[in-house]
Each structure stands twice: as structure tokens, then as C-alpha cells.
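Example record

One chain of 150 residues, shown exactly as stored in the release files.
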Amino acid sequence: MDAVTYPAIEVVEFVMEHLIPLKINLTEKPFYENSRVLWTPTILILDYDGSELQRTVGYLAPDEFIPMLHLGKAKLRLSHEEFDGAEVHFNRLLERYPESDAVPEALYFQGVNRYKMKNNPMELKEAYEKLLTSHPDNSWTKRAAPYQFM
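Predicted C-alpha cells for this chain:
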């Protein structure tokens, strides 16, 4: 990650604009033991109180790293009921990185976000239908399967 992903200009710009980066040395046992870091690199997206919202283990190229960061930011906004802000990050991920591995999870949580924003169960069903069309065998589609009955 140090050689390819972190120095990429698009990664640097995103992190500086949206996040507070913190790199922990694995000799700092209290942090990595409390955070249950099993392997490196482990990327954690934490909320304002330090609660974990997103965890990614292993190498990601810049074109997968930034979508993962958008997903983490969207989940942060969703967890604080900042639905419009969450929608911005879901849309950026889906529009700019349509081939990303993060897309199915983003579609799932975008449906949750829209449901909470509008209090309309059909938003969940629409999310399931998008997942079924675009990623029929993905685990996020399977998790959304109950929404087909709404």
C-alpha cells in the first residue's frame, strides 16, 4: 500500500479532504489488540466516537481503495442519520467506480439510507432489484433477498 496506493494523488486528495489519517505501528500493542487487527494492511473507518464502521483487510489498488473510503464515509453519515451526506458518497462511488467490488455493498446500504430518509419500504425493494440485476450471486444480494416481498 505504501508503494502504490497511498502515494497516488487521487488517494492523497481524498484522504486530505475527507478523513483524518492515522497509521499505527504494530508494535503499539494496545491499539491493534483492542482493534483486533489480524493482518496488515487493515484499514478502519471510525466514527467521531471511535466506533468502527468499516474494516478492510489486505491490499487495495487506488481504484478500489477510494470506493472503499466512499463507502466508509457513507456509512458514517448514515450512522449519524445524515442521509443527504450519505447519499452523496453512495452516488459518487456508484457513478465514478461502477466496476468496484464495493458497489454491491454500496447499493445495499444506499437502499437502507433511502428507506430511512423517506420511510418508504419500496426503497429497500428497489435496492434488492438493482442488486439482483447487476450482482445476482453476490452476498449483498442474498442479504437483501427479504426485501423482494415488500
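Notes: The chain has one domain: 9-149.
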